[in-house]
Structure formats: structure tokens, C-alpha cells
UniProtKB/TrEMBL annotation:
Name of this chain's protein: Uncharacterized protein
Source organism: Cinchona calisaya
PANTHER family given in the database record: BNAC02G09200D PROTEIN, ENDONUCLEASE_EXONUCLEASE_PHOSPHATASE DOMAIN-CONTAINING PROTEIN
InterPro entries in UniProt: Endo/exonu/phosph_ase_sf (IPR036691)
Upper taxonomic lineage: Eukaryota, Viridiplantae, Streptophyta, Embryophyta, Tracheophyta
Gene3D superfamilies documented for this protein: Endonuclease/exonuclease/phosphatase
Length: 119
């Protein structure tokens, strides 16, 4: 039995279902050893039938990736707020603010810690 078929068997044994998703289909992408682009839906939210019955509007939303090659998932248990995915845009007024250099330096000096170390 392959690892993937064993994983699928565990999901079946536990009665877990792949939840609906909103956003682009693929949650991961990278390059093959030959240099071609590859992508897939590796990241999923799973739930059982009771969860689906309690949260009929539930869906996992594929967010914009930031520091990883995987897109984070955000599970909504009711309809999400309007607006959808929005890219962050840095404006001139923010850059011209007197505290911008200090805030910017502080932010980037704290970025060495990977997400996997966060609790």
C-alpha cells in the first residue's frame, strides 16, 4: 500500500471528507528537477458529516501565499466578509511617515523565524 492510499484509507476510516474550497485550485507550486513548473492541491481542510451539518456554509479559502510555497487555508464557518483576496499595496503616505524606517527595520529584523516555529 502506498503512503497516499494509506492516508486516504485513514480519512475513510475516520469519516473525514474534503471540504469545499474557494479560491484558486492549486495550493502549492514549484519546479520539477527538469525545471518545468508543477503544481497541485496538496493542502486541504477535512471535516466530518457532523461538522458539515453544523456549518452548512463552511468552506476553506485559499489565501495569498507569502513566505511559503504553500497557500495558507482559512476555514470560514459562515459566509466570509465581502471583498475577496486583496494584495497589500504600500502607499507613498506610508513611506513618507516619520516612523516608517523604524517600523520597517523592526518588521524585517523579526522575519528570521519561520512560520513552522510559530505556535
Amino acid at each position: 500500500m502506498t503512503r497516499m492510499s494509506a492516508f486516504k484509507q485513514v480519512l475513510d476510516d475516520c469519516g473525514l471528507l474534503d471540504s469545499d474550497f474557494v479560491g484558486r485550485r492549486f495550493t502549492w507550486w514549484g519546479k520539477s528537477r527538469y525545471g518545468s513548473l508543477i503544481h497541485g492541491r496538496l493542502d486541504r481542510a477535512v471535516c466530518n458529516a457532523v461538522w458539515l451539518d453544523l456549518f452548512k456554509e463552511e468552506a476553506d479559502h485559499h489565501q495569498i501565499r507569502t513566505m511559503s510555497d504553500h497557500k495558507p487555508l482559512l476555514v470560514y464557518t459562515q459566509p466570509p466578509p465581502p471583498g475577496g483576496e486583496k494584495l497589500f499595496r504600500l502607499g507613498k503616505c506610508q513611506v513618507d511617515h516619520a516612523d516608517f524606517p523604524i517600523i520597517n527595520q523592526s518588521f524585517w529584523s523579526n522575519q528570521a523565524k519561520p512560520f513552522s516555529d510559530c505556535t
